[in-house]
Amino acid sequence: MSDSLRTLTVTVLEAKDVIACDKGKSSDPFCKLDLVDGKSAKAISGEGFKTKIKKKTLSPVWNESFEFGKKGANLDTKNQPTLVINMFDSDTFSSEEMGRVTVLLGSIDQSGGTVERWFKLENTDKASSNITGEIKLSLKYSGELLTALPIDMTKPIMDVVDSDPEGKLNELHILLIRATGIKVMDKNMLSKGGSSDPMMTFHLGGDEKLKSSVKKKSLAPVWEETFKFPVSSTSAVLTCVMDDYDMGSGNDFMGQFSIPLETLQDRKEVRKWYELEEVDGNKGEDIGSVLLAVKWVHNVELISVVDKAVDYKDPVWDDVKDEDLEKDPNELNIFILKAHNLKIMDKNLLSKGGSTDPMFTMVLGEEKLKTKVIKKNLNPEYFEKFSFGMRSNSGKLKVICDDYDMGSGNDFVGMVEIDLSKLSDRKELRSWYQLGDDDGSIGMDIGHVLVAVRWVFNPSRLSPVDQPIDWGNPKMEVNDELDEKPNEINIMLIRAYGLPVMDKNMFSKGGSSDPIVSFKIGSEVVKSTCKKKNLNPEWGESFQLPVKSSEAFLEVLVDDYDMASGNDLIGTFKIPLAEMTDRAEHRAWHPLGNDPDEVEGAEDRGWEVTADIGHVLLAVKWVHNPERLSPVDIPVDYSSPMFPDLGFVDDVEKAPNELVLFLVKAWGLKVMDKNMFSKGGSSDPLVEFTLGDTKVKSTVKKKNLNPEWNETFRFPVKNDKATVKCLVQDYDMASGNDDMGVFEIPLAGLENRSELRVWHHLAFDEDGDGQIDAGADIGSCLIGVKWVHNPELVSPVDQPIDWEDPSMEVVHVENDKEFPPNQLGVTLIRAYGVKVMDKNMFSKGGSSDPVVTFTLKEMGKISEKKSTVIKKDLNPVWKEHFAWQIEDDKRFSETLVVSMDDYDMASGNDFIGSFEVPLNELNDCVERRNWFTLIGEEEHAEVGSVLLAYKYVHNPEYAPFVEEESEPEPEIPVELTPFEKRMQKCIDDGDGTSLNLSKLQLDSVPEAVNALISLTAMNFRGNLLSVIRDDLFTFTAGITSLNLSMNAFSVTPSSIPQLSHLMRLVLSDNQLSSLPIDLFAMPKLAELYVERNYLRDLPKGVSVALNMTKLMLAGNQLTYIPEEVAEMPSLKMFDVRDNPINEGEMNVGVRKIYDSTVLHVSKSSRRGLVSRALTVRKLVEENRERQLRLFAEQEKAAKKQEKAEMLAASKKKR
């Protein structure tokens, strides 16, 4: 393997037919060659050359060669730069541009072969005339691009043994092979270019790091060095960092990449190129690649006490009693036994190694308990017991390990969180826990701790929360009229217990709190008194809140009162009023939580309980209080006041076109302007109604929480899906209006043309999330609405259509040949009620400058036709005619799209609205003339109407030519192209069902193939195809056999899976590196050939191929075969010869199909099968011998252990 740089030799051979720039119809051409960076689009310094000048010629010959890649350009990366060649005409004072050639180097042969071809000169911005001519170039790389070559899995070989394939993964092996395309870090001082001194560092997040050797002055270093880490956590991540070594100033970062160990759990070697990234993970720039092999195995020598089954009898934990299994547990018991292999925190000064002074802290909620400190011990034994009061097991117990240091403070070693939800069975849970970082992530092994936990009932921890509730002390005396709907929530705050300390003592342990309780529904809040310095306060206070909605929540917040800095939240909970609909008293202890945004329940009611932070005893009852009755609760009186006179008679036989809205009054509005020196206040309400783009406002009622308006508003509207949005605001001229509540009035339900008068309850979007929140009563509005027909609003849209003005220009011509219609005619007549787009600056109203655009596909191309612009007119008249030629097969599927814009020459047109005209019913050649509603950008927004006349006709000019009387002249034979010959043969021989286009050098599929809609088989073998048109298989959907072998596909065409009838697919001899799972999900695909490509693995889920009988994958780079292949129910033949696979590791079912396939391939293959069988037999025998040796060693070790235990027992008896 070479360390040298990869270079590119470009030979400028000749040019032809270049433009003449001099008066003598000649030129003096020369070429300037540059390499341009693909990201910055700038020329790479030092990588530029010029050819010699060729005098007075339009066909210059140079034959000059230039070598790129030695002075700054990196040609060892996948993202190759671009070669730009500019041709100039030499002149004494200046040079005139003659054209440019751009060569994307990533698209040419990367294997080192010579590419010689003509490149067309293209126009440039500074060229004086149209550019002509071509340049012939020869391009050749000095070597292959390493990252594009197949990876050799055997050189060098990764000699790693998995001691026990069933054992726990505990050792990561790394084989660092080589790198390529890395950055120049040490630039030459006196010349361009430079080099680097790369080295690699590997770590798993801990302090332990493994480093490679330094490869001096190399941009393509080769290491072939091995490393290994002891690691067993699947959440660990291997970080690989490349630095440029510098002994003086320190190493410089060159790039990095990461490998999650969870991807290596299959215990197989992963060998591949990893792309270097910047620290932030940016992959935008190619800064090099590293070839690395990794494998995660089980090493029996690394087995420790942590890997063995936990012994619950060493020691027995029998001093914890669960006193009463019938009662809910209330105490968490913790047994810290020992720790193993803790991380060294205090390193020795003059020698390697060191020790730690470990101590453990248990944290549950706000409570902490600590073990003793054991000095200088990496494997300490504690056997200490602790307990916490705990009623809910939904949280987690934190166990934190610190290195004790009296002087500088403790140093964090690691921590673990123990999920307490597994303790519901009340049995002891004893386990080794691996310590991780403080964010919960686990990387390097920094130690384990053996912890036992158990949740039990301890009567000594009983509190008032656990005692039966006294329903008579204090007694809740509230009257309720059960026949009436509830409208008031009554709350009795009785007491609280076990509140946490919020105000800690300054000079001693302990402390207290000053609790105060707030009750909130919507925006209505009431508060209790403050109980100073009390963790178990008693109140006995009652509160009432108005509420009618069962969807509301009573939110309870307990705060620690602080007049200076503001209250601190202690805890909170929510009570849904849906639980109060039985109208009974609900008295219960409620646990405080610290997340008020969750859903309801103690665990399922609205907060997260991680530890006991206190309980609150409440009595709650939802009742009907007649004193809270308001006009809103009384049946609506339609006669006081009467609905205003419409001024016309509503003709119920005609469709409604006007909504009349009668704003009567409001009641119980919220106080928005509070009094400064006394309680209470008032509001200055107004109501804003919005329908589409129309907004109207009521008058302002000053200082009134129960205002009366009796005002009428009218909206022209025909759409029953429309909705009137109503917003009540408190008027404020200085600071702007404040929202008081919203509601909506839908037109649906008003079709009976009668008045609907309803109290609408105000709601509020408190969170600003667009969702109206149900809460406390913040007011109601009484509104009457009526949807009527107003004759004054009748518009041209409602009048009978004039079928004569104008008449259509297109004329249908009958024909005895029965030719179908071939032309669409459209007449744009007029529009009405167009939306105002150009509003007046100093007055209301405005206008628009409408222009209409018609869009339709004409003869395979999108055709747009536009009307004239009608200036400043909301009811424009055009009477303009348009026509399109229609293909016969499109008559039933086309749609005419009509859009209207407001013309603006300066800033561009503004969209007004659009509609679509389906053309599938026009085959009768009868004129249609209709009004169409313009729909704006907002849903259901009507922004005007357009009157169109339209029909299909037969136009003789577009009809096929038929000569009837004259004798046919002898046809002159026309020489067909090879493609045309194949197409003709397909039609003549197979009725258009089988098409063979092999070896025609096609780089795309001609559109003429679309016409063969009866095709069932296509053969494109041996062409230059790299992509397939997306619409090809739309026309040829009946394909059952498709051959795309020997082409240039690097990705499987995405349109193939849509072929629901495909049974045979050949993709052999392409450049595919992977296969999409969609191929295997095709319902009828039975045979799939992908031989001699670059496949490295098969996609997950191949067992979905229910009907596949043949899967031929010989000559790829597959390293293993997933067991899912054996689950393919119909598979009969499976060929993976010439792949780097250890056939001995194949699944038994897969191997049986494979061997059967090989027996049918050839006699030579049979001989290979015998050889392969002998090899496998040898491998099996070697594996059996290795297992026998392992078993013998284990038995010997067990006997040795047994003998030692017997010896120890005999000594103890003495």
From TrEMBL:
Alphabetized SMART domains for the sequence: C2, LRR_TYP
**Which GO terms of the molecular function aspect are on file?**
metal ion binding
Q: Where is the signal peptide?
A: none
In terms of InterPro entries, this protein maps to: C2_dom (IPR000008), C2_domain_sf (IPR035892), Leu-rich_rpt_typical-subtyp (IPR003591), LRR_dom_sf (IPR032675)
Pfam families on file: C2 (PF00168)
Instruction: Alphabetically list the UniProt keywords.
Output: Calcium, Leucine-rich repeat, Metal-binding, Repeat
Sequence ranges assigned to domain C2 in this UniProt record: 1-119, 152-274, 311-433, 470-590, 640-760, 805-932
Q: What is this protein called?
A: C2 domain-containing protein
- The protein's organism comes out as Triparma laevis f. longispina
